[in-house]
Amino acid sequence: MGNTLQQQIINIPEILLATVLKRRIRAEITVNEPGVMHGIELLVQKARDLGLEATAHVNSGASLTSGQKIASLQGDPVRIITGEDHLLSPISKASGIATMARKAVEQAGRIRVVSGGWKKIPQEMKEIARAALQSGGVGMRILDQPFLYLDKNYLRVFGSVNALLKAAAALPDRAVSVQIRGETAPIGDEAVEAAFVGAKVIMVDTGKIADLRTCSKQLKDTNLRDRVKLAFAGEVRVADLPALRREDIDIVDIGKAILDAPLLDFRYDVIKE
Hints:
About 40% of the residues lie in helices and about 20% in strands. It has about 270 residues and is an alpha/beta fold. The two termini are about 40 Å apart.
Protein backbone atom coordinates (compact mmCIF):
# COMPACT_ATOMS: atom_id res chain seq x y z
CA MET A 1 0.00 0.00 0.00
CA GLY A 2 2.93 2.30 0.79
CA ASN A 3 4.36 1.88 -2.71
CA THR A 4 0.95 2.53 -4.26
CA LEU A 5 0.52 5.77 -2.32
CA GLN A 6 4.07 6.88 -3.16
CA GLN A 7 3.43 6.20 -6.84
CA GLN A 8 0.27 8.29 -6.71
CA ILE A 9 2.08 11.23 -5.08
CA ILE A 10 4.97 11.16 -7.55
CA ASN A 11 2.63 11.01 -10.56
CA ILE A 12 0.24 13.79 -9.54
CA PRO A 13 2.20 16.71 -11.09
CA GLU A 14 2.84 14.71 -14.26
CA ILE A 15 -0.87 13.90 -14.63
CA LEU A 16 -2.03 17.44 -13.95
CA LEU A 17 0.61 19.03 -16.16
CA ALA A 18 0.48 16.49 -19.00
CA THR A 19 -0.82 19.00 -21.54
CA VAL A 20 1.92 21.59 -20.84
CA LEU A 21 4.95 19.36 -20.34
CA LYS A 22 6.84 20.83 -23.28
CA ARG A 23 6.66 24.38 -22.01
CA ARG A 24 9.54 26.01 -20.16
CA ILE A 25 8.58 28.15 -17.22
CA ARG A 26 10.36 30.18 -14.57
CA ALA A 27 10.24 30.48 -10.81
CA GLU A 28 11.90 32.78 -8.29
CA ILE A 29 12.84 32.36 -4.65
CA THR A 30 12.46 35.48 -2.52
CA VAL A 31 13.11 36.18 1.15
CA ASN A 32 10.18 37.60 3.15
CA GLU A 33 12.17 39.20 5.96
CA PRO A 34 15.63 40.66 6.63
CA GLY A 35 18.31 38.13 7.43
CA VAL A 36 21.59 36.48 6.49
CA MET A 37 21.87 34.03 3.60
CA HIS A 38 23.27 30.57 4.01
CA GLY A 39 22.92 27.43 1.88
CA ILE A 40 22.50 29.06 -1.52
CA GLU A 41 25.22 26.89 -3.05
CA LEU A 42 23.44 23.72 -1.92
CA LEU A 43 20.14 25.07 -3.25
CA VAL A 44 21.68 25.59 -6.70
CA GLN A 45 23.21 22.12 -6.68
CA LYS A 46 19.90 20.52 -5.70
CA ALA A 47 18.08 22.48 -8.41
CA ARG A 48 20.53 21.25 -11.03
CA ASP A 49 20.18 17.69 -9.74
CA LEU A 50 16.42 18.07 -10.35
CA GLY A 51 17.12 19.09 -13.95
CA LEU A 52 16.49 22.80 -13.49
CA GLU A 53 18.58 25.73 -14.64
CA ALA A 54 19.42 27.72 -11.53
CA THR A 55 20.99 31.12 -10.96
CA ALA A 56 21.94 32.42 -7.51
CA HIS A 57 21.70 36.17 -6.97
CA VAL A 58 23.45 36.26 -3.58
CA ASN A 59 26.24 34.39 -1.80
CA SER A 60 26.23 32.73 1.60
CA GLY A 61 26.98 35.31 4.26
CA ALA A 62 25.19 38.11 2.41
CA SER A 63 22.81 40.36 4.29
CA LEU A 64 19.25 40.12 2.91
CA THR A 65 16.48 42.68 2.80
CA SER A 66 12.79 41.81 2.86
CA GLY A 67 11.52 41.03 -0.64
CA GLN A 68 14.99 40.40 -2.11
CA LYS A 69 15.21 37.81 -4.90
CA ILE A 70 17.85 35.22 -4.07
CA ALA A 71 17.57 32.67 -6.91
CA SER A 72 15.94 32.18 -10.33
CA LEU A 73 14.97 28.82 -11.80
CA GLN A 74 13.92 27.61 -15.22
CA GLY A 75 12.69 24.24 -16.47
CA ASP A 76 9.68 22.18 -17.48
CA PRO A 77 6.47 22.58 -15.43
CA VAL A 78 6.81 19.31 -13.48
CA ARG A 79 10.32 20.07 -12.30
CA ILE A 80 9.48 23.67 -11.49
CA ILE A 81 6.37 22.72 -9.48
CA THR A 82 8.07 19.91 -7.56
CA GLY A 83 11.13 22.08 -6.95
CA GLU A 84 9.34 23.91 -4.16
CA ASP A 85 9.32 20.70 -2.10
CA HIS A 86 13.10 20.36 -2.34
CA LEU A 87 14.70 23.78 -2.65
CA LEU A 88 13.59 25.72 0.41
CA SER A 89 14.84 23.19 2.95
CA PRO A 90 18.58 23.78 2.26
CA ILE A 91 18.25 27.49 3.03
CA SER A 92 15.47 28.12 5.55
CA LYS A 93 16.99 26.65 8.73
CA ALA A 94 20.59 27.39 7.78
CA SER A 95 19.76 31.02 7.04
CA GLY A 96 17.83 31.25 10.30
CA ILE A 97 20.96 30.14 12.20
CA ALA A 98 23.17 32.52 10.21
CA THR A 99 20.76 35.38 10.92
CA MET A 100 20.73 34.76 14.66
CA ALA A 101 24.51 34.33 14.68
CA ARG A 102 24.97 37.70 12.96
CA LYS A 103 22.61 39.32 15.46
CA ALA A 104 24.62 37.85 18.34
CA VAL A 105 27.88 39.19 16.92
CA GLU A 106 26.39 42.65 16.48
CA GLN A 107 24.89 42.65 19.98
CA ALA A 108 28.15 41.44 21.54
CA GLY A 109 30.28 44.33 20.28
CA ARG A 110 33.87 43.86 21.43
CA ILE A 111 33.17 40.41 22.92
CA ARG A 112 34.15 37.41 20.76
CA VAL A 113 31.17 35.11 20.19
CA VAL A 114 31.74 31.38 19.81
CA SER A 115 29.36 28.44 19.76
CA GLY A 116 30.27 24.95 20.86
CA GLY A 117 26.65 23.79 20.88
CA TRP A 118 26.80 22.43 17.30
CA LYS A 119 28.48 19.32 18.73
CA LYS A 120 25.18 18.36 20.43
CA ILE A 121 22.94 18.41 17.35
CA PRO A 122 22.27 15.43 15.02
CA GLN A 123 25.23 14.31 12.94
CA GLU A 124 23.51 15.10 9.64
CA MET A 125 23.00 18.71 10.75
CA LYS A 126 26.46 19.41 12.16
CA GLU A 127 28.20 20.50 8.99
CA ILE A 128 25.30 22.73 7.96
CA ALA A 129 25.12 24.33 11.42
CA ARG A 130 28.87 24.95 11.56
CA ALA A 131 28.89 26.62 8.16
CA ALA A 132 25.80 28.69 8.99
CA LEU A 133 27.37 29.92 12.23
CA GLN A 134 30.44 30.99 10.30
CA SER A 135 28.29 32.80 7.72
CA GLY A 136 26.88 34.79 10.62
CA GLY A 137 30.34 35.54 11.99
CA VAL A 138 30.31 33.20 15.01
CA GLY A 139 33.45 31.18 15.63
CA MET A 140 33.74 27.49 16.44
CA ARG A 141 36.84 27.81 18.56
CA ILE A 142 37.67 29.77 21.69
CA LEU A 143 41.22 30.36 20.46
CA ASP A 144 42.63 30.50 16.95
CA GLN A 145 45.79 28.67 18.00
CA PRO A 146 45.92 24.93 18.88
CA PHE A 147 44.45 24.45 22.34
CA LEU A 148 43.05 21.97 24.83
CA TYR A 149 39.57 22.52 26.19
CA LEU A 150 39.48 20.89 29.60
CA ASP A 151 35.91 20.72 30.83
CA LYS A 152 34.31 19.93 34.16
CA ASN A 153 34.66 16.19 33.66
CA TYR A 154 38.45 16.38 33.34
CA LEU A 155 38.45 18.57 36.44
CA ARG A 156 36.38 16.04 38.36
CA VAL A 157 38.83 13.28 37.41
CA PHE A 158 41.89 15.21 38.63
CA GLY A 159 40.18 16.82 41.61
CA SER A 160 41.85 20.23 41.36
CA VAL A 161 42.73 22.84 38.76
CA ASN A 162 46.38 22.59 39.72
CA ALA A 163 46.53 18.83 39.10
CA LEU A 164 44.65 19.14 35.83
CA LEU A 165 46.91 21.87 34.48
CA LYS A 166 50.01 19.93 35.46
CA ALA A 167 48.70 16.97 33.45
CA ALA A 168 48.10 19.28 30.49
CA ALA A 169 51.80 20.20 30.57
CA ALA A 170 52.36 16.91 28.74
CA LEU A 171 51.14 18.77 25.64
CA PRO A 172 53.24 21.95 25.80
CA ASP A 173 52.38 23.05 22.26
CA ARG A 174 48.72 23.52 23.18
CA ALA A 175 47.21 26.48 24.99
CA VAL A 176 44.82 25.45 27.75
CA SER A 177 41.24 26.57 28.21
CA VAL A 178 39.73 25.33 31.44
CA GLN A 179 36.06 25.26 32.40
CA ILE A 180 35.36 26.18 36.01
CA ARG A 181 32.13 25.94 38.00
CA GLY A 182 33.31 26.22 41.57
CA GLU A 183 33.22 22.46 42.09
CA THR A 184 36.71 21.93 43.52
CA ALA A 185 37.07 25.25 45.36
CA PRO A 186 35.31 28.63 45.50
CA ILE A 187 35.06 29.71 41.88
CA GLY A 188 37.25 32.78 42.33
CA ASP A 189 39.99 30.59 43.81
CA GLU A 190 39.68 28.19 40.86
CA ALA A 191 40.15 31.10 38.47
CA VAL A 192 43.25 32.38 40.27
CA GLU A 193 44.72 28.88 40.43
CA ALA A 194 44.11 28.32 36.71
CA ALA A 195 45.73 31.61 35.74
CA PHE A 196 48.67 31.06 38.06
CA VAL A 197 49.37 27.57 36.69
CA GLY A 198 49.24 28.75 33.07
CA ALA A 199 45.75 28.53 31.58
CA LYS A 200 45.18 30.90 28.66
CA VAL A 201 41.37 30.92 28.87
CA ILE A 202 39.17 30.57 31.94
CA MET A 203 35.60 29.62 31.06
CA VAL A 204 33.13 30.57 33.80
CA ASP A 205 30.40 28.12 32.84
CA THR A 206 27.74 28.80 35.43
CA GLY A 207 25.68 31.45 33.66
CA LYS A 208 25.89 33.54 36.83
CA ILE A 209 27.10 37.12 36.54
CA ALA A 210 28.06 37.08 40.22
CA ASP A 211 30.51 34.25 39.54
CA LEU A 212 31.98 36.12 36.61
CA ARG A 213 32.48 39.25 38.68
CA THR A 214 34.07 37.25 41.50
CA CYS A 215 36.57 35.70 39.08
CA SER A 216 37.33 39.04 37.47
CA LYS A 217 37.92 40.74 40.83
CA GLN A 218 40.16 38.00 42.21
CA LEU A 219 42.20 37.87 39.01
CA LYS A 220 42.68 41.63 39.12
CA ASP A 221 43.47 41.62 42.83
CA THR A 222 46.23 39.07 42.21
CA ASN A 223 47.55 40.83 39.08
CA LEU A 224 46.71 37.79 36.97
CA ARG A 225 43.93 39.20 34.83
CA ASP A 226 46.25 40.19 31.99
CA ARG A 227 47.53 36.62 31.68
CA VAL A 228 44.20 35.09 30.69
CA LYS A 229 41.11 35.57 28.59
CA LEU A 230 37.90 35.41 30.59
CA ALA A 231 35.06 33.50 28.91
CA PHE A 232 31.45 33.10 30.00
CA ALA A 233 28.77 30.53 29.21
CA GLY A 234 25.61 28.93 30.59
CA GLU A 235 22.21 29.46 28.95
CA VAL A 236 23.31 32.85 27.63
CA ARG A 237 20.65 34.48 25.41
CA VAL A 238 21.28 36.86 22.55
CA ALA A 239 19.17 39.41 24.43
CA ASP A 240 21.66 39.22 27.33
CA LEU A 241 24.58 40.45 25.23
CA PRO A 242 24.09 44.23 25.50
CA ALA A 243 24.27 43.98 29.30
CA LEU A 244 27.24 41.59 29.13
CA ARG A 245 29.21 44.20 27.20
CA ARG A 246 29.49 46.11 30.45
CA GLU A 247 31.12 43.12 32.17
CA ASP A 248 34.75 41.99 32.18
CA ILE A 249 34.41 39.33 29.45
CA ASP A 250 36.58 38.52 26.45
CA ILE A 251 34.62 35.58 25.01
CA VAL A 252 31.02 34.41 25.29
CA ASP A 253 29.80 30.95 24.27
CA ILE A 254 26.20 30.78 23.02
CA GLY A 255 24.77 27.48 21.83
CA LYS A 256 21.03 26.83 22.06
CA ALA A 257 20.00 30.47 21.67
CA ILE A 258 21.55 30.57 18.19
CA LEU A 259 21.03 26.99 17.03
CA ASP A 260 17.32 27.08 17.96
CA ALA A 261 16.81 30.09 15.70
CA PRO A 262 13.52 30.09 13.75
CA LEU A 263 13.50 29.42 10.03
CA LEU A 264 14.18 32.40 7.82
CA ASP A 265 11.05 32.84 5.71
CA PHE A 266 11.45 32.36 1.94
CA ARG A 267 8.77 31.99 -0.75
CA TYR A 268 8.82 30.13 -4.05
CA ASP A 269 6.79 31.67 -6.88
CA VAL A 270 6.14 30.52 -10.43
CA ILE A 271 6.39 33.57 -12.67
CA LYS A 272 3.50 34.38 -15.00
CA GLU A 273 4.68 34.80 -18.59
